[in-house]
Amino acid sequence: MSREQLVRIAKRNLAHIEAGTQDQADAVVRVPVSNYFAEERWKLEMERVFGRVPVVVAASCELAEPNSYIAGEVAGTPFLVSRGDDGELRGFYNMCSHRGAIVTEPGVGRARRHTCPYHAWSYDSGGRLVGVLDADDFGDIDRDCNGLTPLAVAERSGLVWLYRTSEPLVDIDTFLCGYGEMLAHHRFETCHVAGRQTIAGPNWKVAYDGYLDFYHLPILHKDTFGPDMSTKASYDAWGPHQRVTSPGRGWESIQGTDESDWDVGDLIGGVWTIFPHVSIASFDDGRMYMVSMLYPGDSPGSSFTTQMFLHSGPVPVGDAEIAEEADYVKKRMDFNHHVVQDEDYFTGLRIQRALRSGGKQHNLFGRNEGGGQRFHGFLDRMLETPDDELAALFKSYA
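Request: output the structure for the sequence above.
Response:
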């Protein structure tokens, strides 16, 4: 079924190429500029979006081994996701049961025990309290009730999702609206993580608008990759999750050939976004993926994006191969850091300041910007949806 969807998308783009057209929404849409900086709106987004849906924090290949873990923070919630000795993936508040200290420093690693740096209470990879300093002097406590506080996690399509609650309001498959089957074609579980880097940015929606926008590519990025890009975009959606492709380029390998000969690898290009905060781009015919995980900062005007680079090839073994691949990875990471920091987010931070000036009351999303229209429309609906109707909202889009 998923291949049929990819073929349908490809045929539509080929038709656009032949006709010189692109997808068009029904009308131009206005979004109030206050949505990008109003404190109450931002607090509602933290509660009703990032507080209720799962967010991507890692790749499955990054946490493949027993006792592997990732620690970090999402929207004010310190978290620890760990693969236990039993192979089970579990999530926790990264917060000691004794006095609330951060147990494990942010980052990725392997550890059989996680020891609090404040009073040396320790927890195993399953979150159980296994060590209390001077236990006889401290007094009686029930260790079974004082492990790390759980957070729900899920794995699909080679990615790891974290909820900021132990009891999800919407399960991962309902949330994905069938999108997981499409993401599975990338085979992220067979990749290895080549590197991570983090970039500070503007309001999370200012940044996310850019990931859904091909209109700016040859303009803003004129000195980097822009001259090879088209302003035209096609959008396909699975609930709030969207794939952006261009009818202007990228279809040369299948143009003029029989669809029965089309390989899935030739059909999965473009930018794949996962609501509310992920953008996935591939480079060099799938040799490298950049999974951009965009998280809100501690105020409406800030965010940070972690770029996780997944390498789809085998791990180099010889010295020459290792050196060559290391050079390729470094150049790819440096290039994308420059593009996002010095072009996208440089512009986005200035947009953020301008929006607060009062010079305009609305941002405009044209008929050729259907992806942004869908994102803001779904976001508005989510903010209005109570907890007991959240799963139904996603099912209505499936």
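The longest helix spans residues 319-355.
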